[in-house]
Amino acid sequence: HLAEEVYADAHKITLVEDNHAAHKLSALYEILPPERARAIIERIEVVRTPKHGSWLNIAEIELSILTRQGLAKRVESKEALKEQATQWYQQRNKQASKVEWQFTTKEARIKLKRLYPKI
Asked: Residues 34, 40, 45, CA angle at the centre, nearest 5°?
C-alpha cells in the first residue's frame, strides 16, 4: 500500500523502525509475485533506532505531538477521534515536519558510549 499507492512516485521510501521490530521485507515474497516484491524492496530503506534509545523513536515523538497539538482534551466518540487525528496528520504531512535531533551521531557515541559496542 505505501510503496504502490501512497508513495507510488517516490524513488526511495525510508522506514524507521525500533530495533525490536519483527517485520522482515522478505515477507513480501510470501504474499506477492517475486518481481513485484523485489521492485518494492529495492525502493525501501529500513533505518532501525538503537535498542536502548527509545527517546529516538519517531513514532513516540509524533504521538506525543498529536496529543499536545491535535486532540481536544476530551473526545466524545471514536469517529470524532479519527476525524481530529486525520485533520492533524494531514496538516502535519503538508508541513513536511521533521525531527530535529539534538546532537549528531558522533556526539551520541560520546554521550552514550556505554550503549555502543566496543570495536
From this structure: 130
In this structure, how many other beta carbons lie within 10 angstroms of the beta carbon of residue 12? Answer: 9
Q: Which helix (H) or strand (E) element contains residue 16?
A: strand 13-17
CA pair distance 23, 44, nearest whole angstrom = 13
* C-alpha cell of residue 6: 501512497
Query: Which pLDDT tens digit goes with each residue over 86-105?
Result: 888 888 888 887 777 677 77
> d(Cα 19, Cα 4) in Å, to the nearest integer?
25
pLDDT digits (tens, 9 = 90+) for 12-41: 999 887 766 667 888 899 999 999 999 999
Could you give the C-alpha distances from 108 to 16, 50, 57, 102, 119, in angstroms and in order?
18, 11, 15, 9, 16
Cell 523513536 maps to which residue? Answer: 57
> Quick count: other Cβ atoms within 10 Å of Cβ 62?
16
Confidence of residue 57 (pLDDT cuts 50, 70, 90): low
What kind and span of H or E run contains 45? strand 44-48
